[in-house]
Amino acid sequence: MTLHIPFDNSYATLPGGFYTRLNPTPVKGADMLAWNTTLADELRIEGTDPTVFAGTTVPDGAAPLAQLYAGHQFGNYNPQLGDGRAILLGEVIDHHGKRRDIQLKGSGPTPYSRMGDGRAWLGPVLREYVVSEAMHALGIPTTRALAAVATGEPVYREQGALPGAVLTRIASSHLRVGTFQIFAHRGHIDELRTLTDYAIARHHPDVDGPMGLLKAVCAAQAELVAAWMSVGFIHGVMNTDNCTISGETIDYGPCAFMDAYHEGRVFSSIDQTGRYAYGNQPRIAVWNMAQLATALIQLFDDKEQAVEDATAIVHAMPELLQAAWLRRFGAKIGLADATPDDQPLIEGLLSLMQTDGADFTNTFAALPTDTARDQFTDRDAFDTWHTRWQVRTPDPTLMAHTNPQIIPRNHRIEAMIDAAVAGDMAPFHRLMTALATPYQATDTDLHRPPTQQEIVPATFCGT
Ligand code: AMP
Ligand code: MG
Looking at 83, 94, 101, 241, which residue is catalytic? Predict the structure, then answer.
């Protein structure tokens, strides 16, 4: 099969300290399970070749490399992480003139693999494919999925031998807070400066210097986390190595969309203390930006001034988050012009939902209809809220555009993975079709919350 990828690589022209050049490790098979035609067109990729997306063949023009980074994991600094199971093939300029990374995930060991095998199994690959594409359809910034290929080789995890797979991930870049941290922490100021200039040129060309970059990243992350909150998304591992400079969602590991609303909801089996619980996400985003600020301060001779400037920028972030949250949740209850005076109204609804364990997605989706009260056991309390709400004359059209009918529910993803492992890709395609138009009520069976038996209590990092 012929494949043409119009590579235009920039990261590979940076000094060698930023990465290790190496090819993906070839595998036995290359069974294309999913291929994103629309995205391929957007990236100006012509044709396809499963062996390229399995990592067996290196395409013309690629400059394969593993990127170096560090990061805080659950609050503890890990001085060296890096692409332990991913290879950046290179970059293309897409149809809109935007630079995009093409990365293979699960493509074999690298110098940064530590104890890992560099591989991924089918489950997490399809989970990321479905959830990242659903996120995109919801209009939320995210990395994308171009391809999922079965390698024909087993991968060994706690559950035993599992089918191996490779995901092709597309990102505006893979620059993370952790990419800055590693050079700052090592005192490699020249590299830190090169990286900062590169990040500004690539993502925020209009900003002025490192503080301008910090401000822009704070704004992008505030918007992102408010968007997650508005669809009940819990990222699960908001470590600084999983926090992008572009403001895209990255690394769909033990993530999930909530069914029943609870502010303290945690899915990840490794998040014992609830650090990355739903309601903590805004605070963690600020914490992550404080780590970026700490790294960028190293670029300044006048440290005292730099600390003062960076602190002001980070301290302004809660207000950005609050404003973005109010705008999004205001729109969810049909208010285009929500003001801080509306906050108790929004919180009043969330509080009723939490008490009743009401389904997050279905409650908001039902608000414009007269079935919303069916989501509650305490109907009187809901009716009282409803009367208060009607005074504000909510706009049903706005609600229809801001409240998805369908999100990738965890139990459906688990069932889809089980089917795929057994060789049946039909549930995958069914989910992909329905999730492509999340604001329309098609395939209503997929709207149903899990039954008691179907509830998936935790998602696992065993990727
Ligand atoms: P994550 O939790 O997916 O963000 O990964 C954290 C770090 O662990 C990154 O440096 C990954 O490259 C690395 N890692 C995760 N899984 C594997 C694996 N199976 N083999 C090698 N490295 C891995
Ligand atoms: Mg990661």
Answer: 241
Which ligand number lies closest to the CA of residue 176?
2
Please confirm, yes or no, whether 374 is among the known catalytic residues.
no
Distance 171 CA to ligand 1 centre (A): 17
In terms of Cα–Cα distance, which of 166, 220, 155 is closest to 26?
Answer: 166
Sign of the C-alpha dihedral, residues 304, 309, 314, 316?
A: positive
72 & 185 share domain? no
Q: Which residue CA neighbors atom 12 of ligand 1 most closely?
A: 84
pLDDT in tens, 394-417: 999 999 999 999 999 999 999 999
Residue bearing the CA closest to ligand 1, atom 13: 84
CA atoms of 125 and 22, how far apart (whole Å): 22
Same domain, 166 and 189: no
Residue of 69, 72, 77, 85 best suited for mutating to test ligand 1, as the one with most atoms within 8 Å of CB: 85
Same domain assignment for residues 313 and 292? yes
Under 8 Å between Cβ of 25 and 55: yes
Domain boundaries, position 163: 11-171
CA 227 – CA 329 distance, rounded (Å): 9
Please tell me which residue, 361 or 442, carries the higher pLDDT value. 361
Ligand nearest to the CA of 81: 1
Measured CA to CA, the distance from residue 30 to residue 127 in angstroms comes to: 19
Give the number of domains in the chain.
Answer: 2
CA of 296 to the centre of ligand 1 (A): 25
3-state secondary structure at position 323: helix
pTM of the full predicted structure? 0.98
Q: Would you call 396 helix, strand, or coil by DSSP? A: helix
The dihedral sign for the CA sequence 434, 436, 221, 180: positive
Tell how far the Cα of 304 is from the centroid of ligand 1, in angstroms.
Answer: 36
CB 361 within 8 A of CB 256: no
Cβ contact 185:212 at 8 Å: no
